[in-house]
Amino acid sequence: MADLSAFPITGKWPAQHPDRIQLYSLPTPNGVKVSIALEETGLAYEPHLVSFESNDQMSPAFLSLNPNNKIPAIIDPNGPDGKPLALFESGAILLYIADKTGQLIPQDAAGRYETIQWLMFQMGGIGPMFGQVGFFHKFAGKDYEDKRPRDRYVNEAKRLLGVLDQRLEGRQWVMGDAYTIADIAILPWVRNLVNFYGAGDLVEFDKFANVQRVLAAFVARPAVAKGLDIPKRG
Ligand SMILES: N[C@@H](CCC(=O)N[C@@H](CS)C(=O)NCC(=O)O)C(=O)O
Questions:
Q1: Rounded to the nearest whole angstrom, what is the distance from the C-alpha of residue 89 to the centroid of ligand 1?
Q2: Per-residue burial over 124-163, b = 16 or more CB atoms within 10 Å of its CB, e = otherwise
Q3: Ligand 1 atom closest to Cα of 29?
């Protein structure tokens, strides 16, 4: 039985199954990337809800795992060399899950780097830019009279959707026939932009037929449907 007592986070969120991967998360577009990847690969894991309503992400216990106060984060009791490994940043966690299982990433070097390239496209572009659209369209920024900041991020979101749409032309997934962590990183953000932020008209989502097609295929996957609701909100 793994001993995770060296990790203070387990004091606030006790591990019922310390031999499983411990997931600290919330079903946001960054959070569900990890629950979806875990569901897809079949790794055993135990989800813990980090509630923003009670500011759990700022608690000393959470900060001991991720000093950047953001979900998702994990502890794998059986990490490299059989030792526990703690990780934050969803892109790093996706890559770790893919490498641990040999799934969700091509095994040839060129395919692997190309997948990482599209993963970084999400981490550095789609996530931060779509997130700003959310702030200026749905959250506090929507009341700002000056619409130039909103328009800047809407235009950037459209441009990124255009790049993605072109990439998906004639391809089933971002990496062609292979369904990878690049899809798992990107598509929850596209879904969130249209559904939760309600920014579909603003970014003219109807113009991106390839993105629409691949998003529909993504949400139809049983592991995705399941992962989108993990951890369950209290
Ligand atoms: N680059 C980080 C971003 C994570 C992130 O922004 N998480 C948000 C939820 S989607 C969060 O935890 N926000 C809480 C806060 O900022 O206090 C990753 O991909 O893991």
A1: 8
A2: ebbbebbbbbbbbbeeebeeeeeeeebeebbebbbebbee
A3: 10
Residues with CB under 6 A from ligand 1: 28-30, 57, 69-72, 89-91
Domains of the chain: 9-103 (3.40.30.10), 109-221 (1.20.1050.10)
| Residue nearest (by alpha carbon) to ligand 1 atom 12 | 70
pTM: 0.98
Q: Ligand 1 centre from 23 Cα, in Å? A: 14
Q: What is the pLDDT of residues 52-99, one digit of tens each?
A: 999 999 999 999 999 999 999 999 999 999 999 999 999 999 999 999
Give the residue whose CA is nearest to atom 1 of ligand 1. 89
Tokens of residue 58, six digits? 């700022």
